[in-house]
Write a structure and sequence with these properties.
Helices cover 27% and strands 35% of the residues. It has a ten-stranded antiparallel β-barrel with strand order 17-18-19-20-21-22-23-25-26-27. A seven-stranded parallel β-sheet has the order 3-2-1-4-5-6-15, with helices on both faces. The protein has a seven-stranded mixed β-sheet with strand order 10-11-12-7-13-14-16. The longest helix is centred in the middle third of the chain and has 15 residues. By secondary structure, the protein is of the alpha+beta class. A hairpin with a 2-residue loop joins strand 25 and strand 26.
């Protein structure tokens, strides 16, 4: 079958991504719609497609029945918004679709709009149609994650947040939504953009995002999650933008609304959109987190964290993925349950993960565990199982364990290299040096004592906190190096992300550099450690193998 899908806002920020997600499937006829036929045509000309793309003009403020009668879609997807500003008849398009027995989906992120969709349930069932609202990151993706993390838990506290890339080109409607609620009270939660938490988004196995300040925003989950999960005690939804100056400025301006000097900050949305999308800096990466705290049937308190990072321009595809997954199932004959409701439970996290695999998107879960669980296993969470056996065996210990092997040691020759080697106790150069490492685990930390032919030096590794959350810290006396553990094609890379001396953070351009990783070769654990400075060259490089002792 061929499914005719009318995408209102089809050349916009998220509607355009939906078109691109479906364009490779010849079973779709995609009606790319908006008020400007010229822009719709220009967009379609820039998309290589096996699906049939039809640029059309559609004005949601004009008579809807006549437009739908002319275009004859099977499904309407409203990707326009802002849904908070749909006026006196916010559900006019929903009602027009039901009247013509046309299925309807939308990207709504307005709490009242999404929650209000249930009012059309009886009418939708009478016409044998599906009406799903909020087919986007909130609540479709966030609740799909909650369904997985919340299994077996009661008395749950849920927190979620989105951190868009500073270069993602946030749509004007998204900014208008945030600005329209800034400074206004969200019942039971506080004032929007004025309640904050600092979070580090750190999926297991990748370099985390820099710490971000997440501010409370209105989202459908605040109302819908307690309705569908009666055991949930609290919900908190947030956004963490970068560069942070724009979010802090909006937070300060929110006082004007809270003090009733201004009714709303909506009039500033065009300015924030224009300036924010032109003056942006920072890594082109975005992310999302969902955290669940709860109690198991045995009475144990558990914390489960799902984190996601999207690289480059891949992040803005995520809000369109739920709709793409539903339409693909639709064209294969798997229609969602008839009726009108928020999109909760209609798209599973497994279906999302299938789409994530097409992009540079990494997700993972960490669960709080007793500190007797080894450090690397605790830190890597769901990424632990993907490591080679030899690497897992070396780090999977309790109490005290020891490994022995051989190494090649190279030393730098300059004065800086000699001073650094003396300060840290690095071994002398040699081609076949006996080496042993004693691991001592206690209180969630591990002390590594390395011995190269009688020359010993030690360090302490532990999970970072605060600004180092999501990283492993290694302390050599007063010097602390913060690292991400990144599985990479059978290797476990240690990627440096920060350092300090005597508790004082130091700039990264002064940090030592080098390629450091662990690997498994012929079933044996191998290590490669390289330390140097860009302006002085090598300090020390040691590489070799270790065999864990009984």
């Amino acid at each position: 079958m061929t499914l005719r899908v009318l995408i209102v806002g089809g050349y916009g920020t998220f509607g355009g991504r939906l078109v691109r997600l479906l364009a490779c499937d010849a079973r779709f006829a995609l009606l790319v719609a908006g008020r400007s036929l010229e822009r719709a045509r220009a967009f379609c000309e820039g998309v290589a497609a096996q699906a049939r793309l039809e640029p059309v003009r559609f004005d949601r403020d004009a008579p809807l029945d006549a437009q739908l009668a002319t275009l004859t879609p099977d499904v309407v997807v409203d990707a326009s918004g802002p849904f908070q500003a749909y006026g006196a008849a916010p559900y006019a398009l929903v009602e027009a679709c039901i009247a013509r027995s046309i299925h309807y989906l939308d990207f709504a992120d307005a709490t009242a709009f999404v929650d209000g969709a249930t009012a059309f349930d009886a009418a939708a069932k009478a016409k044998d149609v599906v009406v799903l609202s909020g087919v986007s990151s909130f609540p479709a993706l966030s609740t799909a994650v909650l369904q997985r993390l919340g299994k077996g838990l009661s008395q749950m506290d849920v927190a979620a947040g989105i951190a868009p890339s500073p270069h993602a080109g946030i749509g004007r409607n998204v900014i208008r939504m945030i600005a329209s609620t800034a400074g206004k009270r969200i019942a039971g939660h506080g004032f929007a953009m004025m309640v904050h938490r600092r979070v580090v988004i750190a999926p297991p196995g990748v370099v985390p995002l820099r710490p971000r300040r997440f501010s409370l925003v209105d989202a459908p989950d605040l109302v819908l999650v307690p309705q569908h999960w009666p055991s949930v005690r609290s919900v908190w939804t947030s956004a963490g933008t970068a560069p942070p100056v724009w979010q802090r400025l909006l937070g300060l301006l929110s006082w004007l609304v809270r003090l009733r000097v201004l009714p709303s900050l909506s009039f500033l949305a065009p300015l924030f959109h224009r300036v924010g999308n032109r003056l942006s800096w920072g890594a082109h990466r975005g992310g999302m987190f969902v955290t669940v705290r709860g109690i198991t049937a045995s009475g144990e308190h558990v914390a489960r964290d799902w984190h996601m990072i999207a690289e480059g321009d891949d992040g803005p595809f995520i809000p369109a993925m739920a709709t793409a997954a539903l339409l693909r199932k639709w064209v294969e004959g798997a229609l969602p349950a008839l009726g009108a409701r928020p999109c909760i439970g209609d798209v599973t996290l497994e279906e999302y993960e299938h789409l994530f695999a097409r992009f540079r998107i990494t997700t993972g879960v960490r669960e709080t565990t007793p500190q007797r669980v080894p450090l690397y296993r605790r830190y890597l969470g769901s990424a632990w199982a993907g490591l080679p056996d030899a690497i897992r065996d070396m780090h999977d210990g309790d109490g005290v364990w020891r490994a022995e092997g051989r190494a090649k040691v190279e030393r730098g020759r300059g004065p800086i290299a000699r001073i650094a080697a003396f300060v840290f106790g690095f071994p002398k150069a040699g081609d076949d040096v006996p080496v042993s490492v004693t691991f001592t685990a206690a209180d969630g930390r591990e002390t590594w004592t390395r011995n190269f032919a009688g020359k010993a030096f030690s360090s302490v590794q532990y999970e970072g906190r605060g600004r180092r959350d999501g990283l492993i810290c290694e302390a050599f006396g007063p010097f602390v190096f913060a690292m991400a553990l990144v599985p990479d094609g059978g290797r476990l890379r240690l990627v440096q992300c920060g350092w300090s001396a005597f508790g004082i953070p130091l700039p990264m351009f002064l940090a030592p550099v080098g390629d450091t990783f662990e690997s498994a070769e012929e079933g044996r654990f191998h290590f490669h450690v390289e330390i140097g400075f860009p302006w002085t060259g090598l300090i020390v490089r040691y590489r070799g193998w270790l065999s864990r002792q009984p």
